[in-house]
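Limitations

Structures in this collection are predictions, not experimental determinations, and the ligand pose is part of the prediction. Treat each record accordingly. The example that follows, with nicotinamide-adenine-dinucleotide as the small molecule, is included so readers can see exactly what is and is not provided: the inputs are given verbatim, and the output is the predicted complex.
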Amino acid sequence: MQIINPATEEIIKDIAEDTKESVGDKFRLLKAAQAGWHSVPLQQRVQVLKNFSSLLEQHIEALASVLTSEVGKPLQQSRNEVNGARARIKWLTENAEKYLSEETMTVDKGLEEKIAYEPLGVVCNISAWNYPYLVGVNVFVPALLAGNAVMYKPSEYATLTGLEIEKLLKQAGVPRDVFHVAIGGRNTGEYLLDLPFDGYFFTGSYKTGKYIYERVAPKMVPCQCELGGKDPLYVADDVADIKSVAAATADGAFYNNGQSCCAVERIYVHEKVYDRYVDEFVKEVSTWKKGSPTEQGVYIGPLTRKDQLVVLDNQITEATQKGATVIAGGNRISGKGYYFEPTVVINANHNMSVMREESFGPVIGIMKVKDDDEAVTLMNDTDYGLTASVYSSSQDRAKNILRQVNSGTGYWNCCDRVSAAVPWSGRKHSGFGSTLSHAGLRAFTKPKAYQLRG
Ligand code: NAD
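Predicted complex:
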């Protein structure tokens, strides 16, 4: 397998993919080691994951550089990602004892009723490339805290980062056979689906998630899917400062080149503020520096995957054929690397894929709406349900809208953010189950009910 730098198209490394046999061997080692890890007191497991976080801090420059070289995100965004992962580990380690320890529910006349949170066993984590630290940490950190052994399959586009993660986890004190990495793409994923893991935790596209869910179903083990989105954002007519709203929401759409599961993917603007908003939005986009992700100050680097350039070309061609107007960008940037101009499409509508299918790139569609009801109808007119956002000076108004939108997260005056304190979950084609929060810690456990009379 070749690791390619998306900014230069150079081959960084040739690396051997795992085979069916090597994946099977790793599985058996994980299986043998898991009970020993579970018998390590929780406080010690917590300490090991805290050590991992310290190592991330210590090596942040080298890690950011590896990440940028294989996924192409601007270096500062790679540093932000490692720091973001540390913030999640902090919350998870600080709350592990509270949510993973045995709970006494009732004590009554010699009868005690308790819940113990037992680990699932050996879990399989098939992961995505767009935020390998963040989406990885969501899974393998709580899984390890809960006493599981983990087979981690990084995306084939983030392999080197996956290997860095493995190295640092082991340096931090995770026993050698409690965490293994499976290297490769679809074929390696298939080998993992053939094995009898005790749980599957997938982050990736709806298409692959649906397939994995179907394949895992007969095993009767937990299968959790964090999938794509087409996240809507509504700008109401009472926003106080259009310029700052335009800047914040443009960042929500274009950060990491739009390659975020919770990137703002479609924007609805109240007709009273539409023209001013669009004007400020385009002004903001025009200020961004484009270029090599290793260059200081660059905000728009290359896309990670070459194939996505075609998806963006097609969305823009179709939208313009159906009456939309491109008022910024619209084209690939010539030369080496998978670069695409940040693109703003107005007069978009729901007959266009730019408003219906995940763009996962630097393209945003904007639509004018006449009132909140029309915004709600359009926000819900989607197969997805990850996040939704409302900008308004009234929390009541925003919450009234968000209550009606079928999404796992609702944002008021913010967007494109994830917090470890609250569940991260999708609805409809965005998946199901939660990571992060107390729900995300317990997702890696099976409750055992004890009814003890004596
Ligand atoms: P993808 O579905 O192409 O791949 C995801 C993983 O599945 C990779 O590791 C890949 O090798 C593996 N895979 C592919 N085919 C497989 C098969 N047949 N069997 C087993 N494994 C297989 O997704 P991607 O391009 O890596 O990630 C982008 C997608 O992930 C976007 O849709 C994005 O929105 C979504 N995502 C969601 C979240 C979330 O939290 N909801 C977070 C990040 C990314």
